[in-house]
Design a protein that fits this description.
The complex is a heterodimer. Chain A has a domain of 190 residues: 3-Layer(aba) Sandwich (Rossmann fold), CATH 3.40.50.300. Chain A is 31% helix and 22% strand. Chain A has eleven helices and 13 strands. Chain B is α/β, with parallel strands linked by helices. Chain B has one domain: 3-Layer(aba) Sandwich (Rossmann fold). Helix content of chain B is 29%, strand content 22%. Chain B is built from ten helices and twelve strands. In chain B, strands 6-7-8-3-9-10-12-11 form an eight-stranded mixed sheet, sandwiched between helices. In chain B, α4 packs across α5. Chain B is globular. Chain B starts with 10 loop residues before the first strand and ends in a 13-residue tail after the last strand. Classes of the chains: A alpha/beta, B alpha/beta. At the A-B interface, α7, α8, α9, α10 and α11 of A face α6, α7, α8 and α9 of B.
């Protein structure tokens, strides 16, 4: 096996606030291979977006980033300065945001914005950059690409704008794309088209992707690997098949029970729910973070929580209970 | 379900249209945009009508017409058989109440929860402050909030709690119909299921009728008793929930259903065959408005608008079904 394109060990993010420190992300580990898609799924406040911003070093000054290892394509990001990061962003690593209207500059044409990264990072002329921009617009399925170059973002629909964002991310053939809720603002029909495009292009160009979403349907259909985050911790990770077919962590199981599945959930039946709210992450956080909402919780959940790994290492979860359930309790059929 | 009922439908739309005059450019001429185009629907008491379609199809305009926030350009809306044009907004508000998508922007941040929920009572001059407080306490209990939140402000509450407040405010007037416009799309998955369960319970308990607007088809399938599919201002298919999801007829409905991403990892991302983008509603395509995106388009679809065909329960507007329609419809 070759080196992973991104390797993260014990990533921690602390936000100093008035009364103390908010431990927003605590000890995240994962590896991402070339061409692989990792979906990070979690609810609001789980730290999934912060984790991605931490990799891009886009956190802002207030948030303190610590990691035992944060290596991207041979570069140690913990030691990379602002200049090095600027050289990497938009070139070797690119980002796609949720709302293309706010992440595209309304005052510049599509063409200017597409060509910017290439002109900045590569020694190419305008004609060459223009040729590449047209090529990529065609690749993301935009017709009349030449004409689009001189248009402004407001002249395009939401779906087209998101296609432009994808083309922009791919301009310099990056090693890694981070897509943060790329289809949440789009209609379901457009969502399917954009996700297909992302999956096909990243596969074809062998680009690794981190896709951040709260939508379990998107995760199941797109991910090679899944990481489930809750309150700043990675509670379960594994291949999409393992996590969806045999979810181990009580939180993952709870989430899957919350969503109605056409053809499976009985219409009008009571949906599962996760009572309670996410605990405060200010000050010392100990034990299992999910124990206050967990139906499997016991005294032992206040102590050290082991990370349990399957024999082939392709599925692991953080829980005191060996199978993610209290001993002797059977899951109702 | 309540078909074959002698009483008039609790809510009925008869050939309702809403046309906006849109000016293109500063000196451009005004052109008509048919946001809602000749829509007829009827809801029996206890029905949950799911209304689905892409953004711009007219779902929210339809909701505004029902709430009396927009007057239809033509056609009639009837509540319990009475046309609402004859009623004033105040009377209408007693019978139809809304729940909106975003509980962060739909609650006044400077008012306490007590003030927010009791506002409809005060507007209508119902009871004194003691009885209003009592009503607020009761309705908080119904939506699953402790009565101590009465003195809280929206900023002190979570998204799910705020949506419960919005539901309490809608229900305090004991309306017959609740228009839910994307009521759970701003909420987290675990909170969404709690709100959906609550809406289901309330409907059973109080015999409420919902118009449930959502882009989440899995949620619509779960909650709705009937479903209407809207495209460019028209209802292109309407049926009981089982028939619509199990045997969709309109190619647009098929494409919508195909685009639902269920949490099944082996299936991959579906190809919806909806190549072209959503058309400009000011210049809708000729013939069947859906034909440029339709996987089963025929020559006739390009020139002739399809007629509604119905077998009583399941109606569809598509040339694949029904007899020769022959004449073009304006």
């Amino acid at each position: 096996m070759s080196e992973p394109v991104l390797s993260v060990r014990n990533l921690r993010l602390d936000i100093p606030i008035g009364a103390g420190t908010l431990h927003a992300v605590r000890g995240i580990d994962f590896d991402l291979d070339r061409g692989e898609t990792l979906c990070i799924v979690g609810e609001s406040g789980s730290g999934k977006s912060l984790t991605s911003l931490a990799i891009m070093d886009l956190l802002g000054k207030r948030i303190e980033r610590k990691a035992d290892k944060l290596v991207f394509d041979g570069t140690d990001l913990t030691k990379a300065g602002a200049r090095k990061m600027r050289a990497l962003r938009g070139d070797r690593m690119a980002m796609i945001f949720q709302e293309p209207m706010t992440s595209l500059n309304p005052a510049y044409t599509i063409g200017d914005q597409l060509m910017e990264a290439l002109l900045l990072h590569r020694k190419v002329g305008k004609a060459e950059a223009r040729r590449r921009a047209v090529e990529l617009l065609e690749k993301v399925g935009i017709t009349g690409a030449e004409r689009r170059l001189s248009q402004y973002p407001h002249q395009l629909s939401g779906g087209l704008r998101q296609r432009v964002m994808i083309a922009m991310a791919l301009m310099c053939e990056p090693e890694l794309i981070i897509a943060d809720e790329p289809t949440t603002a789009l209609d379901v029909t457009i969502q399917a088209q954009i996700l297909r495009l992302l999956v096909d292009l990243t596969r074809e160009m062998n680009v690794a992707m981190i896709l951040i979403t709260h939508d379990l349907g998107v995760v199941a259909r797109v991910a090679d690997k899944v990481a489930v985050m809750y309150a700043g911790e990675l509670v379960e990770a594994g291949t999409a098949k393992k996590v969806f077919d045999a979810p181990m962590h009580p939180y993952t199981r709870g989430l899957l029970r919350c969503i109605p599945v056409p053809g499976k959930t009985e219409r009008g039946s009571e949906l599962g729910s996760i009572p309670g709210i996410v605990p405060s992450l200010v000050g010392e956080v100990s034990g299992c973070v999910f124990r206050t909402r967990c139906e499997e919780a016991t005294e032992a959940c206040r102590g050290e929580i082991p990370f349990r790994e399957s024999a082939d290492g392709r599925h692991n979860f953080r829980c005191v209970h060996e199978a993610g359930r209290r001993a002797g309790v059977e899951e109702p059929a | 379900m309540s078909e074959g009922n002698a009483s008039p439908p609790v809510l009925e739309l008869r050939n309702v249209s809403k046309t906006y005059q849109i000016k293109q450019g500063m000196f451009g001429e005004r052109k008509p945009l048919k946001a809602v185009n000749d829509v007829s629907l009827s809801l029996q008491r206890g029905d949950v009508l799911g209304l689905v379609g892409e953004s711009g199809c007219g779902k929210s305009t339809l909701a505004k017409i029902l709430l009396g926030l927009e007057a239809p350009t033509s056609g009639e809306v009837l509540v319990d058989g009475e046309p609402i044009g004859a009623q004033n907004r105040r009377l209408l508000a007693r019978r139809i109440q809304p729940i909106f998508q975003d509980p962060y922007s739909s609650l006044n941040p400077r008012k306490s929860i007590r003030d927010i929920i009791s506002l409809p009572l005060r507007v209508h001059g119902i009871g004194d402050s003691a009885s209003q407080d009592k009503a607020v306490r009761e309705i908080l209990d119904v939506v699953g909030l402790p009565s101590r939140v009465m003195n809280s402000y929206p900023s002190q509450m979570s998204g799910g709690q705020r949506q419960r407040v919005a539901i309490a405010r809608a229900l305090i007037m004991k309306p017959e119909v609740v228009v839910c416009d994307e009521p759970t799309s701003a909420l987290d998955v675990s909170v969404q299921s709690q709100i959906l369960n609550l809406l289901g319970e309330l409907r059973r308990e109080f015999g409420l009728t919902y118009l449930f607007i959502s882009h989440n088809l899995a949620v619509v399938e779960h909650l709705a008793t009937r479903v209407a599919v809207m495209y460019l201002g028209r209802i292109v298919e309407e049926a009981p929930v089982g028939a619509l999801f199990d045997e969709p007829r309109h190619p647009y409905t098929e494409a919508l259903l195909a685009s639902v991403l269920t949490p099944e990892p082996d299936l991959g991302v579906p190809d919806t065959h909806l190549g072209a983008t959503y058309p400009n509603p000011i210049e809708p395509p000729t013939g069947c408005h859906f034909h440029p995106r339709c996987a089963r388009v025929m020559e006739r679809c390009k020139g002739v608008a399809p007629q509604l065909t119905s077998d009583g329960e399941h109606s569809v507007e598509c040339h694949l079904y029904g007899q020769e329609s022959g004449q073009a419809v304006a």
